[in-house]
Design goal:
Distance between the termini of chain C: 46 Å
Chains: A mainly alpha (343), B alpha+beta (574), C mainly alpha (311)
Radius of gyration of chain C: 23 Å
Number of strands of chain A: 2
CATH superfamily of chain C: MetI-like
CATH class of chain C: Mainly Alpha
CATH superfamily of the largest domain in chain A: MetI-like
Strand content of chain C: under 5%
CATH architecture of chain C: Orthogonal Bundle
Strand content of chain A: under 5%
Radius of gyration of chain A: 26 Å
Structural class of chain C: mainly alpha
Largest interface: A-B, 67 and 66 residues
Largest sheet of chain A: 2 strands, antiparallel
Order of helices and strands of chain C: HHHHHHHEEHHHHHHH
Number of domains of chain A: 2
CATH architecture of the largest domain in chain A: Orthogonal Bundle
Order of helices and strands of chain A: HHHEEHHHHHHHHH
CATH topology of the largest domain in chain A: MetI-like fold
Shape of chain A: flat
Number of helices of chain A: 12
Strand order of the largest sheet of chain A: 1-2
Strand order of the largest sheet of chain C: 1-2
Number of helices of chain C: 14
Oligomer: heterotrimer
Number of domains of chain C: 1
Helix content of chain A: 55-70%
Number of strands of chain C: 2
Largest sheet of chain C: 2 strands, antiparallel
Shape of chain C: elongated
CATH class of the largest domain in chain A: Mainly Alpha
Helix content of chain C: 55-70%
C-alpha cells in the first residue's frame, strides 16, 4: 500500500514538470506584465526599466525558467542600466520553497492564496454537500419510480439546467430573488458579496450571502449528478442478484433500496473524489458575478492583469490537487471493492 | 413526523431570507460600489481606480474645487507670485516657500513636519528607493530645503510656472511609518503600509479594515482638524460585474455607484430613489489619425484628414451613444477648463464637402456608388489617382483600432457607416487596452504606429495646459527603435508647436502664458489629426434616501484622480 | 454464385446495425424532438441568410430613430444601440456559433480519436507518454486552460475570408482553443475500447492475414469505436456553444463586428432592463440549441450503445 502510494506520487513528478513548462511557455507568449505601465506618463521610463530588471523580464527565457525554479539569489543584475551589476537577486525559487511575489500586489504569493482559498473552499464544499444530498435524494427517488411523471419532469428540468450558461442562471436568480422579491415586498436575498456592508459579519449574514451563489453553482451539478445516480441505481436494481432477491420474496422496498445503494455507492464515491479538486480552482464566472473573493476571481484578475507568479502557482496547486485526489479515488475504489487490487 | 421536519426546513429557509428586510436604515455608514480593487495602495501607476480612495486618508498641500479654485489643505497659505512666496532667482529659476499649517497631526497622533516632505522628496528623486508616479519631479526640482519644522523651500532648475500643480513637494506619507521600511529594504516598495497595514495619514478617515476581494472600511480619523465628516464610516464594496453593480444599487446594498460607462445612464436613472449626475471629465474620446508614423499614406494629406472629420456627424453620435446635451469637444484640451475663449473652429458635418475634398486629393469614386446612401452590402472604396506615394487604383482602406470598451466599439461601428458614405472603407479592430497602449518595446499598437485611425482618450491636465504634452506631440517623441521612449505614436510634428510649447513651459505670467498656450494649441490641432468625439463625463448614481445630494456631493474634484477629494462634506439624508 | 444470390434475396433481410439504431433512436421521443429542434435551428440560420445579407446584418443605421428599437413588425427581434437588426444578427451570429461548435468538435474528436487509437493500439512507451500528456491536460481545469490560451491570443487583430465573409481571426482562435482543450476525455474512452478490442479474434485474424497496422486500426478497430465518438461529438457541440458564451462573458470571446450568440448576449449586459430583447433572443437560441443537442446526444447514446448510458 505505502509502496503503491509512493510510486504513484513519484509518477506525478514528470507530470507536474510537464505542466509547469507548458504553463510557463504559455505565459511568456501572453504579453508583457508591465505593458500597462506604459499607458501612464506619470510613470517615468526609468522606473519601468528598473522594474523590468528587478523582475528579470529582460532575461533570456531559459534563465527566467531557472530563476522561477531555483531563484536568482546567486546572481547580480544591472538594474539601473549603467553597465555594472548592482541589484542582487532575492528570490529562492519554487523548488526551494519560495512561491514568489505577485507583480501587481507585491504580496508573497502564499499570502495572496491564503486570502482566496478559504472563501473558495467554503463555497465549493457547501456546494458539493448540497449537490450530493439533493442529487442522492432525487436520483434515488427517480430510480425507484422510473418514467413516472415526477421522473420525467425532473429529467426535463435537469436537461434545461444543463443547457444554460451559468452566468445566465446566476443573473436570473439575482433578478428574481434579490431584485423582484424585494420589489414585491417578499423576503429577499443580497445580490452579492460575502457580508452586508452595514452588517455585523454574523453567520446568518454569511449564509444569506451564500444562498444564491450556492444555488447557481449547484443547479447544473445536481442535474448531472442526479442523472448519474439514477442511471447507476437503475442498473443495480435491474441486475440479476436484485432480481433474484426479489424472486426469493425479498420484496421489502427498503432492502432492495439498501442493496442497490450499497452497490451504486462505489462509482458515486469515485466521481465525488474526482470532482473535489475542481473546487480548488474556484468558480470563475460565479465568483465574478457574486463578488465572491475566492480563487476563481483571483484567477481571472491575475489573468487580466497578467500576474505570472500568481498564475503559475495557481495552476500548480490545482494540478497537485488533481493528482492527489485521483490517488484518493483509486485507493477508495480498492478499499470498497474487494475485486480491485493494486498492481 | 415527516411533515414536521419539512416545515422546520422551510422555516429555517424563510428566516434566512427575511433577514434581508431587516437591514437597519438608521446607521451612519456610506457604502460605495467600487469597480476595481486596488492591488496595492502604492501610488505607482495603476488603473486610475486603484487609488481613488486616497483622498479619504491622505491629503495634499492644497486642492482645487470643481471650478478649479485652489484652497489650502495642509499648507498654511497658497504660494503665489503676489504673496511673495514665489520668487525668481538671479539665474531665472523659480523658488517657492511653502509652510505647513500649525498643529497638523497624523492619524496616529504624531506631528506632521517638513521632515515628512523631505522623506518623500528623497524617494521622488531616487528611482531605486521605490517605484511610484514621480511625474516630472526629479527632472525639474533642484532641491528641497528645510527652514524650520513647518517651512521648506523648493528650488526648481528652470522657470517653473506650474509650481502649484506640477512637481510640488508631497507631504502625504508619514516618515515614522515608512522610514523603517526604507531602511530595512532600501526601497519602500515592499512596505506593509501599501498593503493596507498600519496606514497612517492626514485625511478625514482612516483605513480600519481591508478584506481583500470584498471590501475596505474607513472610519473617522480622530485627529482630523478639517470639516467634520458627515458619515461615521465609509465602506467600499468591490463589485466588478457591471450588471451586478446596477443590481446592488437597485437592492439598496450600495449608496453610490460611480464612473460607470455612459450607456448606463438610462439604467441608473430608472432605479427608484436614485439621482444621477455627472462632473466634467478630463478624458475626451477622439479619433486619432496616424499622419506621420507609418500609417496609411492617404492620411499624410491634411485634406483627407479633414474630409474624414467632415464625413461624420459627431453631434448626432454623441447624443445617441452618450446622452442628450453632450458636447463635441473642439480641442484635446477641454474647453471647460480653458479660461480663454477658444478660437478653434469645429469642423462641421458636411458629406458633400468631404466627397469634394477626397476627390480633390486624388481619391476618386470610380463607380459612383456613393449616392446610394450606404445601402450597398460591400461598399466599394474610392481609389487613388495621382496621389503622391500611392499606386494608382489603390483602394482607400483604413485600419481602425479601439479598445474593447463598448461605447468606443459603438462609435467605431457608426463611424464606419459614415465613412462608407463617402467611399472610405475601414477595417474594425477592437483590441484590449493593454495591447493598444503598450510601450514601443512592448510592441504597443499606438507606439509602433501600426494603425491608421484609433479611438481612445488621452487625459489632459485641467490645471496646466500641455503639462505632459511634449511626449505626446513633440517632433522628438515619435517612438523608434533608437529612441523608444516617446508617446507620439501618431507622428504629429509641428516645429511651431514645439517652440511655443517650450515657451508655455517657462512663462510665469499667467495671462501671457495662456495666450501662448492658445497659440500652441491652434498650431497643433489645426493639423486635423485629432477628431474629438465627446468629453467623457464622470457619472455618479446616488441613493437619495441615504445621501443628501447637494453641491457638496457634486464637488468631487477637478483632476482625473480626485473623485472624492471632499468626501467629508458628504452628508446623510434627512 | 447466382444461386447464392437468389438465396439471399429470398430470405427476409436481417435488420442492419444502422436500421436497428434508427429504430431504437426513433423510439426515444425526446431525442427525436431534439433532432427536430436542432434541424429547425439550423434551417433557421441557413434559410434566414437568404432573406438577409450579411452586409445588412452588420450595417449600422445613421438615423438615430432606428437605435434600440423594441421588437415590432418591422424588426421582429428589435434593433441594437447602433440600429442593427437583431433578427439578422441572430441568424448570422447563429451561423458562427454553430460553426464554432462544429469545427471545434471536429478538431477535438479527430485528436481524441487519434490519440486514443494510437495509445491503445501500440501501447508501451507511446501509450504512457500520450496518457501522461492527457493527464497533464486534465490536471489543469478546462476553463483555466481555455482562458489562459485566449489571453495568449488576445490582440491578434486580423480577419480572414471564409466563404466570402470576413471573419475575425478570434473565431479561429476560439475554435482552436475549444478544440484543443476538450479531446482528452474521448481519447481515454477510445483507448480503453481499443485495449479491449485489439486482442479479440477478428483483429487477431486480420493480423494473421497480414493486414497492416494502419488497416487494422482504421478498418477493423475504428468502426467499433464509432458509438462513443458520435455521442461525444454531439454533446461536444453543445458544450462548445456554451463555452463560447462563457468566454464572451469574461471578455475573451469573439470580437465584434463578427456576431456570435455569445457576444450579442454580452452586449445587453449593461442594460438588462432597457434592452431585454437583446439578451432574450440570443439567450433563447442558445438554450434551445444546446437543449436540443443534449436531447439528441442522450438519444444517440441509448440507440447506439445502451450499455454506455450515463457513463
Amino acid at each position: 500500500m505505502t509502496r503503491y502510494i509512493l510510486r504513484r506520487l513519484l509518477e506525478a513528478v514528470p507530470l507536474l514538470t510537464l505542466i509547469t513548462i507548458f504553463v510557463f511557455l504559455l505565459l511568456q507568449v501572453s504579453g508583457d506584465p508591465l505593458a500597462y505601465l506604459a499607458q501612464d506618463p506619470r510613470v517615468r521610463e526609468g522606473d519601468r526599466a528598473l522594474l523590468r530588471a528587478r523582475y528579470g523580464l529582460d532575461d533570456p527565457l531559459p534563465v527566467r525558467f531557472v530563476t522561477w525554479l531555483v531563484g536568482d539569489d546567486w546572481r547580480v543584475r544591472d538594474c539601473n542600466g549603467d553597465g555594472t551589476p548592482d541589484c542582487p537577486g532575492v528570490t529562492q525559487g519554487i523548488l526551494r520553497g519560495d512561491l514568489g511575489e505577485s507583480i501587481r500586489t507585491r504580496q508573497p504569493v502564499e499570502v495572496v492564496f491564503a486570502n482566496a482559498l478559504p472563501n473558495t473552499l467554503l463555497l465549493g464544499l457547501t456546494v458539493q454537500v448540497v449537490v450530493i444530498i439533493v442529487a442522492l435524494c432525487l436520483g434515488i427517488f427517480t430510480a425507484l419510480r422510473p418514467y413516472s411523471a415526477v421522473d420525467n419532469v425532473l429529467t426535463g428540468f435537469s436537461f434545461i439546467a444543463f443547457s444554460m450558461p451559468v452566468f445566465l442562471i446566476a443573473l436570473l436568480l439575482v433578478q428574481v430573488f434579490a431584485i423582484q422579491f424585494r420589489a414585491w415586498g417578499l423576503p429577499f436575498l443580497p445580490t452579492g458579496g460575502m457580508y452586508d456592508a452595514r452588517g455585523d459579519r454574523s453567520l446568518d449574514e454569511l449564509i444569506r450571502h451564500m444562498i444564491l451563489p450556492v444555488l447557481s453553482l449547484s443547479l447544473i451539478q445536481i442535474a448531472g449528478y442526479s442523472r448519474y445516480i439514477r442511471a447507476t441505481m437503475l442498473e443495480v436494481i435491474n441486475s440479476d442478484y436484485i432480481r433474484t432477491a426479489r424472486a426469493k420474496g425479498l420484496i421489502n422496498r427498503r432492502i432492495v433500496f439498501l442493496h442497490a445503494l450499497k452497490n451504486a455507492s462505489l462509482p458515486i464515491i469515485t466521481l465525488i473524489a474526482l470532482d473535489i479538486p475542481g473546487i480548488l480552482s474556484g468558480a470563475v464566472i460565479t465568483e465574478t458575478i457574486f463578488s465572491w473573493p475566492g480563487m476563481g476571481r483571483l484567477f481571472i484578475q491575475s489573468l487580466e492583469q497578467l500576474d505570472p507568479p500568481v498564475l503559475m502557482v495557481f495552476v500548480l496547486i490545482t494540478a497537485v490537487a488533481v493528482v492527489l485526489f485521483q490517488l484518493v479515488a483509486d485507493i477508495l475504489y480498492a478499499m470498497l471493492d474487494p475485486r480491485v487490487r493494486y498492481n | 413526523m415527516k411533515r414536521t421536519r419539512l416545515m422546520l426546513v422551510l422555516l429555517a429557509f424563510v428566516t434566512a431570507f427575511s433577514f434581508g428586510s431587516l437591514a437597519s436604515a438608521q446607521d451612519n455608514t456610506l457604502v460605495i460600489g467600487w469597480e476595481q480593487e486596488p492591488p496595492l495602495l502604492n501610488p505607482r501607476s495603476d488603473l486610475a481606480f486603484a487609488v481613488l480612495m486616497q483622498p479619504f486618508y491622505a491629503r495634499g498641500l492644497w486642492d482645487w474645487d470643481l471650478e478649479r479654485n485652489i484652497f489650502p489643505v495642509m499648507a498654511a497659505e497658497i504660494p503665489t507670485l503676489d504673496n511673495g512666496r514665489v520668487t525668481t532667482l538671479e539665474n531665472g529659476n523659480t523658488q517657492v516657500t511653502i509652510s505647513l499649517r500649525e498643529g497638523l497631526l497624523w492619524s496616529d497622533g504624531e506631528a506632521i513636519t517638513v521632515d515628512d516632505c523631505l522623506f518623500w522628496h528623497e524617494i521622488l528623486m531616487d528611482p531605486t528607493k521605490g517605484t511610484i508616479q514621480r511625474t516630472s519631479y526629479p527632472e525639474v526640482v533642484e532641491s528641497l530645503e528645510k527652514v524650520d519644522d513647518l517651512t521648506m523651500v523648493v528650488t526648481y532648475n528652470r522657470p517653473w510656472p506650474d509650481f502649484q500643480s506640477q512637481a510640488v513637494p508631497v507631504c502625504s506619507y508619514p516618515e515614522h511609518v515608512l522610514g523603517p521600511s526604507l531602511e530595512a529594504d532600501g526601497t519602500i516598495d515592499n512596505a506593509p503600509y501599501f498593503s493596507g497595514q498600519g496606514v497612517v495619514g492626514y485625511g478625514p478617515y482612516v483605513l480600519s479594515e481591508w478584506v481583500v476581494g470584498d471590501s475596505m472600511t474607513f472610519d473617522v480619523n480622530p485627529t482630523w482638524d478639517g470639516a467634520a465628516p458627515g458619515f461615521n464610516r465609509v465602506v467600499l464594496r468591490f463589485i466588478t460585474e457591471t450588471a451586478q453593480m446596477q443590481n446592488a444599487m437597485q437592492a439598496g446594498e450600495i449608496d453610490v455607484a460611480f464612473n460607470w460607462s455612459d450607456d448606463q445612464v438610462a439604467a441608473y436613472s430608472a432605479i427608484e430613489g436614485t439621482e444621477v449626475f455627472s462632473t466634467p471629465g478630463v478624458f475626451g474620446d477622439a479619433v486619432w489619425m496616424n499622419l506621420g508614423n507609418g500609417g496609411n499614406p492617404a492620411l499624410a494629406d491634411i485634406n483627407v484628414r479633414r474630409a474624414i472629420i467632415h464625413a461624420t456627424d459627431r453631434a448626432a453620435m454623441a447624443e445617441a451613444l452618450v446622452g442628450p446635451g453632450i458636447e463635441v469637444p473642439r480641442s484635446w484640451y477641454p474647453e471647460q477648463f480653458w479660461p480663454a475663449e477658444s478660437d478653434l473652429p469645429l469642423v462641421e458635418y458636411n458629406v458633400d464637402g468631404a466627397r469634394e475634398l477626397l476627390t480633390a486629393a486624388g481619391w476618386i469614386d470610380d463607380n459612383g456608388d456613393e449616392t446610394d446612401e450606404n445601402t450597398e452590402d460591400t461598399p466599394t472604396p474610392r481609389i487613388a489617382q495621382d496621389v503622391a506615394g500611392v499606386a494608382d487604383g489603390t483602394p482607400l482602406i483604413l485600419r481602425f483600432f479601439t479598445t474593447t470598451r463598448q461605447v468606443r466599439i459603438d462609435y467605431q461601428l457608426l463611424i464606419q457607416g459614415y465613412l462608407n458614405e463617402v467611399g472610405i472603407s475601414t477595417q474594425l479592430l477592437p483590441v484590449p487596452a493593454t495591447i493598444l497602449f503598450a510601450g514601443f518595446l512592448e510592441r504597443g499598437i499606438l507606439t509602433t504606429g501600426d494603425f491608421d485611425m484609433a479611438i481612445f482618450a488621452l487625459s489632459s491636465n485641467p490645471l496646466s495646459p500641455f503639462a505632459d504634452a511634449p511626449t505626446w506631440f513633440g517632433c522628438d517623441n515619435i517612438p523608434s527603435a533608437e529612441d523608444p521612449n516617446g508617446n507620439n505614436g501618431w507622428g504629429v510634428c509641428s516645429p511651431e508647436f514645439d517652440a511655443l510649447d517650450l515657451e508655455v513651459g517657462s512663462t510665469l505670467d499667467p495671462a501671457e502664458r495662456l495666450a501662448k498656450a492658445q497659440e500652441a494649441q491652434e498650431a497643433l490641432f489645426g493639423q486635423q489629426f485629432w477628431h474629438g468625439l465627446y468629453l467623457r463625463p464622470t457619472w455618479y448614481a446616488i441613493n437619495t434616501a441615504r445621501v443628501t445630494v447637494d453641491d457638496n456631493v457634486r464637488n468631487v474634484g477637478t483632476l482625473s484622480g480626485n473623485y472624492f477629494n471632499q468626501i467629508e462634506l458628504w452628508q446623510p439624508a434627512g | 454464385m447466382a444461386a447464392i444470390a437468389t438465396l439471399n434475396e429470398k430470405k427476409p433481410q436481417p435488420e442492419s446495425l444502422w436500421q436497428m439504431t434508427l429504430r431504437r433512436f426513433l423510439r426515444h421521443r425526446m431525442a427525436v424532438a431534439g433532432a427536430l429542434m436542432l434541424l429547425s435551428v439550423i434551417a433557421f440560420v441557413i434559410i434566414g441568410s437568404f432573406f438577409f445579407t450579411e452586409g445588412y446584418a452588420n450595417r449600422v443605421s445613421l438615423d438615430r430613430s432606428m437605435y434600440s428599437l423594441p421588437p415590432s413588425s418591422d424588426f421582429i427581434f428589435g434593433t441594437d444601440p447602433v440600429g442593427r437588426d437583431v433578427f439578422a444578427r441572430v441568424i448570422y451570429g447563429g451561423q458562427i456559433s454553430l460553426m464554432i461548435g462544429i469545427t471545434a468538435v471536429t478538431i477535438s474528436v479527430t485528436l481524441g480519436t487519434l490519440v486514443g487509437l494510437v495509445a491503445g493500439y501500440f501501447g508501451g512507451l507511446v501509450d504512457s507518454l500520450l496518457m501522461r500528456f492527457v493527464e497533464a491536460m486534465l490536471s489543469i481545469p478546462t476553463l483555466v486552460l481555455l482562458l489562459m490560451l485566449s489571453r495568449s491570443l488576445a490582440g491578434n487583430t486580423s480577419t480572414f475570408n471564409f466563404l466570402g465573409r470576413d471573419i475575425s481571426i478570434t473565431v479561429v482562435g476560439i475554435v482552436l482553443i475549444i478544440g484543443l482543450t476538450s479531446w482528452m476525455g474521448l481519447s481515454r474512452i477510445v483507448r480503453s475500447l481499443v485495449l479491449s478490442l485489439k486482442n479479440q479474434e477478428f483483429v487477431i485474424a486480420a493480423r494473421t492475414l497480414g493486414a497492416s497496422d494502419v488497416r487494422i486500426v482504421f478498418v477493423h478497430i475504428l468502426p467499433n469505436c464509432v458509438a462513443p465518438i458520435i455521442v461525444t461529438a454531439t454533446l461536444g457541440i453543445g458544450g462548445a456553444i456554451i463555452t463560447e458564451t462563457a468566454l464572451s462573458f469574461l471578455g475573451f470571446g469573439v470580437q465584434q463586428p463578427t456576431a456570435t450568440w455569445g457576444n450579442i448576449l454580452d452586449r445587453a449586459r449593461q442594460q438588462v432592463d432597457e434592452l431585454w430583447w437583446l439578451w432574450l433572443t440570443p439567450g433563447f437560441f442558445i438554450v434551445i440549441t444546446v437543449l436540443a443537442i443534449n436531447f439528441l446526444g442522450d438519444g444517440l447514446r441509448d440507440a447506439l450503445d445502451p450499455r454506455m448510458r450515463q457513463n
